[in-house]
Amino acid sequence: QVQLVESGGGSVQAGGSLRLSCAASRFTYVSNCMAWFRQAPGKEREGVASSHYGGSSAYYIDSVKGRFTVSRDNAKKTLYLQMNNLKPEDTAMYYCAYRVGICYSEASSYNYWGQGTQVTVSS
Which of 10, 32, 45, 99 lies 20 to 30 Å (CA to CA) from residue 106? Predict the structure, then answer.
């Protein structure tokens, strides 16, 4: 089992910044992927960005490219998402996810999930 605990969400005005963190209790395998997803009310959960243990990362939403930066500290088993120039459309519950192997953008590919942290951006 892997427990994931997110933190860092909150309410900000448009143009502001937040840094999300996700701490994993353990890695079940060296080759693993940690990812950020988000879900707005009435919408499906969508992949935001992912980071593989080996160092590669990917972004799945065009509108966050250049504004969001995903990173991880393997020694701390922690995933980060630096979010700059936030927009009201970024408002959502943000979830951290974990899987063994390579990264995917689909939520169904991930075995473990955190409880989520709310991000609210006002105009």
Answer: 10
Residue 47 CB burial class (10 angstroms; 0-12, 13-18, ≥19) = buried
pLDDT tens across 89-111, in order?
A: 999 999 999 999 999 999 999 99
The proportion of the chain whose per-residue pLDDT surpasses 90, expressed as a percent, equals 97
* Cα separations in angstroms, 109 against 18, 47, 69, 106: 27, 11, 22, 6
Place of tokens 């504004």: 67
Q: Give every CB contact of residue 15 below 8 A, 6+ residues apart in sequence.
A: 85, 86
All residues at 6 or more sequence positions from 51 whose CB lies less than 8 Å from its CB, including other chains: 33, 34, 35, 57, 70, 71, 72, 79, 103
Determine the Cα–Cα distance for residues 42 and 94; give it in Å rounded to an integer: 14
